[in-house]
Fold:
Amino acid sequence: MNATAMAERVRRGETSARFLAEESLRAIRARNEELNVFLHVDEHGAMAAAARVDDAIARGEDPGRLAGVPIALKDNLCQVGVPTTCSSRILEGWRPPYSATVVERLLDAGAVPMGKTNLDEFAMGSSTETSAFGPTRNPLDPTRVPGGSSGGSAAAVAAGMTPLALGSDTGGSIRQPAALCGIVGVKPTYGLVSRYGLIAFASSLDQIGPFATSVADAALLLEVIAGHDPMDSTSLPEPAPSLVAHLDDGVAGRRIGLVRELIEGADAEIVTAVERAASVLEAAGATVVELSIPELRLGLSAYYLIAPAEASSNLARYDGVRYGLRVTDEDVTAMNEATRTAGFGAEVKRRIMLGTYALSAGYYDAYYGQALKVRTQMRDAFKRAYRDVDTLLGATTPSVAFTFGSKTNDPMAMYLSDVFTIPTNLAGEAALSVPFGRGEADLPTGVQLLGPGRSEARLLAAAKVLEDVERGS
Amino acid sequence: MTLPEGWEMVVGLEVHTELRTATKMFCGCANVFGAEANTNVCPVCLGLPGSLPVLNERAVSMAMAIGMALHATIAPSTFHRKNYFYPDMPKDFQISQYDLPINSGGYLDLPDGSRVRIERAHLEEDTGKSTHLGASGRIHGADRSLVDYNRSGVPLVEIVSGPDIRSAAQARLYASELRAVLIATGASDGRMEEGSMRIDANVSVRRNGEPFGTRCEIKNLNSLRSLQRAIEFEAQRQVELLEGGGVVRQETRHWDETVGATSTMRVKEEAEDYRYFREPDLVDLAPDAAWQQRVADELGPMPAERRAAVVGLLGEPSDAQRDAIDVVIDLGLERFVHATHAAGGDVAVALARVANELAAAEDVSKLTEAAFVATIALESSGQLSATQAKTVLADLIASGGEPREVAAARGFEQLSADSLGDIVAALIAANPDEWSRFRDGDDKLAQFFVGLVMRETKGRANGKAVIAELHARR
Amino acid sequence: MSGLTRTEVAHVARLARLRLSDEELDLFTVQLARILDHAADMQSLDLAGVVATAHPYDLINVVREDVVRPSLDRDVVLAAAPDAEDGCFAVPRIMGEEL
Ligand SMILES: [Mg+2]
Ligand SMILES: [Zn+2]
Structure:
């Protein structure tokens, strides 16, 4: 059952939030050991939240738009009292004394957070293999990765454990696992969703967004979590956009650009899926043009300097003084080093080192400074493209879900799996991935729709056109 | 103490002042001194994972007020992260302003007529505070430290002077004038003993006419006296070193007040690498003309101007009166002196009372200017003794009211006029020998009678009034 | 080629408060050099006149009112600390001083 239907049934009293929470717990128990999706199942908190919804209904109060809908939270989102690790030994056992704004909004809307899902350590990775607590397996083929870094959240939805999940997308960490798990994932416009309580990886790129089994569910969840938050200075000063109301707007009259750089190097089946998506959109009334945005090719280089630079600073606070792991040593500096050396995994260390180097005296201009200028060019290039078309179309990933260990020995190979998703983060714009087509081993492929800032309603409506065709409805 | 012939010191000061906002720079925790450890902390000022800063509007207004008072240019500015590990700093970076500070350029004129340029006055956040346990309590030798983050995130403005200062005395004068200016803007309480104003001094020496020498930075000077002594010592040390054929190493030094010497704290082996970059969690700051105007409208006259106005009332003030004027200006209490002058009262007495009795009070809001002026008038006319006047002022400060009523409630007024005459008459009658000697011109005996009156009245009489009474009867 | 050296990597590790074994130092030097080499495509561009973008959007003057909000309970805060004493976070001795 999808989230929209669930909330409707709960609101009408046809089912209870407690029942749905128990069903979700059953589904989690059935496969969590095999798939390693949840790092922490908050059974007690979930049942309490469900009870509050049922009680509200019993009192005749409005239980909210997500009444009784179970949801999974990526374990880089703070929820008061619930263990939050970022899949890192350095935060193991930490229970935040506060909740992220998105978590507050979910609870206000009657959603039922079921627990915290696995991710690449501090969201640094594209396969969930860098988690200190073991990889998550793809529910569609457990010999393969679910993608990352929000692999746990994507797997929770794909495995039917929860109909909804939240992830975070810094360079593709929602869209890429959504594609690899055959579900919908949205990277909202930078600033649309508050980052307060999202444990930072790269602050100028991070955005929280929804995973769902349908476009409509993704739109509903995004409406609930979006809108201005005074606790986040980079939050857009405007209310949440209207998305659900525009789901059936279609694409008639739209101009959609099929971007050469967003399919080059992708597997043949994926290119085929994107081309088929283009014809479907055309058949639905859109004009599709092929275009090239060469600047997108520079995204990877800029991203792998900007994101690590910000991360090197964001992750400095894990020093063994105030929370999390401490490895004792003779003085504070030695304690900091011992703690960080023991607490961080190799990928996190690699990115901290890279970012520290990119910012350090003598290298700043050549690396970080240059990357920021490329970022400007990226934004300008997108802006130019959006003068001709209103939506861009491409692949989400170059391949379907890959097997474990196939890219772990070569960081650069792993980084390349984000090549199509990174430009959106650099530009601060909106994009989503919708399941469309099948690739190698009959695994799902994702098609990516991109638009300028605040174009979510348009992108979701276009995705709905593809979804309807794919489902034969 | 001066440097040997042919040598000159070059000093620049970096003054950190905490702003008197209600809350911290980036969160809603209270900005107060002296609270119990770690009680004014939240996810933001503890640097908890996921927390984000939001800028305090008042801190920006106060920074602009400081800039305006220092004739600086207010410009669009940005925040950067200054990255280094330090346990007092919860995020292990400090949010500060770097290449685009809110205030740049400007100057401060000192009472000796010299002018010191201001390079910049930027916003940044304070760190927490650690206490070092074990050994001597000093940082070296302690085996354990305890960290309190109440101060973490308190807004600071760092004011960087040009390298324009040429003597330790001038450095002190600069610091004290700057302190007065900061207090006058309302942005700072200037309490050096509480650490709300802290000074780092960059000191170098050179032979006259030569380029600047290598400088050493003396950290955390927390009184004007330490500042002057530390600079004096450091310049002498550098001259001796250079005259002995040595070289000055660029380093950070610590001033030990008890030993009276600076010592090496940290050698800059490799240039510091703070990896400054734009703070991505904050947006740019560009106060518009309307915001700047609001700040300008609230800014009163600066100490130099206010001081001159009080000096003008006194003509040629003594050194003690000049000190009193500084105190009165720092506390913003000169309105009482001006009111006394306007009413034709005794300005010198008023100044002394304000610099002492009023200055010692926590809060003088219950004392009206009219009540103060009336009290001074009662004292000048001899209706109240100095001691009585001080008591009346203390009562007025504590509870408000009218001085005559307060004096009456204290029983002071019974002694004036008739009753004093009766007492004096009785004492003259009881001491005829002393009275005749006084009448014959021995003025010293006036004090004898004053003493008797005081004993009789348990100290409530006004000495001047007694002497007037004696003279009237002579 | 970035020409990244082992010495530079060791220096960066010190700045980042990480200890690397000899093998890690070797491996990171190679891996980081590869990533930096990939960035050569970007470095060769002439972007002299281009403005840097640090923020995706051009908001300015986002401020909050100077109004006190509740702080956290100290017991909760210190319960998370690896070591606490006397209402404070306890740490081993501090060797230098900053600010
Ligand atoms: Mg500073
Ligand atoms: Zn706080």
Remarks:
- Residues 365-388 of chain A form the longest helix (24 residues).
- The pocket of zinc ion (ligand 2) is lined by residues B 24, 27, 29, 41-42, 44-45, 153 (CB under 6 Å).
- Residues 57 and 129 of chain A are 42 Å apart (CA to CA).
